[in-house]
Amino acid sequence: MIRFGKLFSVSLLLVSLVWMSCAPKNALRKEVPEGVFQVENPDYSVSPYTGLTRAHWKDAALYLLEGAFCYIEELDDPMRFPKQPGKSYPQDGSYNVTENLEGLCRTLFMAAPLLKEDPELVINGIQVGEYYRHQMKMLLDPDGPMFIKHMSQPGWISQILVEFGALAISMSVAPEVLWEPFDQETKDALAALMISYGNGPTVGSNWRFFNIFVLSFYQERGYDIDEP
Amino acid sequence: MVEYIEKSLDQYRGEGWYNDSPAYDFYSMWSFQMYGKLWSELYGERHYPEYASAFQANFSDLSDNYPYLLMKTGR
């Protein structure tokens, strides 16, 4: 049985805690303004240094997601956020596929544990589970902005592998929301796409885990992977 | 996949530390240790218990030294 409490904390640790609120860019940060996340009722018997409990991590995830979803008006909108000049990429003013995929997969790290407990979660008027499923299906649409090509053979390593590793983790945490609702055709197409990267080239470092997570997810669901 | 799992475990050097080809850095903790334990709980314990045990044991080794890298102030 999956010990979901641990997974929840771990999943949140994966997230870059970038403040994504819609507040004015020049808002003062020295004092925590009203509306900015704060730890209410810390429990130092649980976490001696921070007072953070599991409930606080959930609150933090929801807070950040609310910031992210204020840029989403309809299901087709990708997770793209305002830029920090000189810091954010891409710096040529145009958006690219990798940025869209990162926005999808990194915010999903926060959403997946919440969806596990509340599959009908709604933020900013958007049904969160439906949004992510829609975006995942868009990865398969060759005419859409989210389309990802299969890994070519022999292929080159790319950030897409990293993001698919992240996506596989979220799908593993909440498959009842992020996998099972798909029809068989979509499942098979997603599997073929992600497995092409899972079986593709990797970096001889921690990157191997991204292959491992993709292949483990699909192996458990009966798909052929490159298993010796 | 098994090859990737074995190669990841081969990067373990002891006392809680993995070598991330070639550096010893934060990736030892937030990648190898975290992903290793996460994978073990999601899949390894059911399908590859020996590998899961290895990741778990490597994680347990952290307690002897990793907490002492950080001051009470967080530095």
From TrEMBL, chain B:
InterPro entries: DUF2264_N. Residues 4-74 form the DUF2264 domain. This is DUF2264 domain-containing protein. Pfam families: DUF2264.
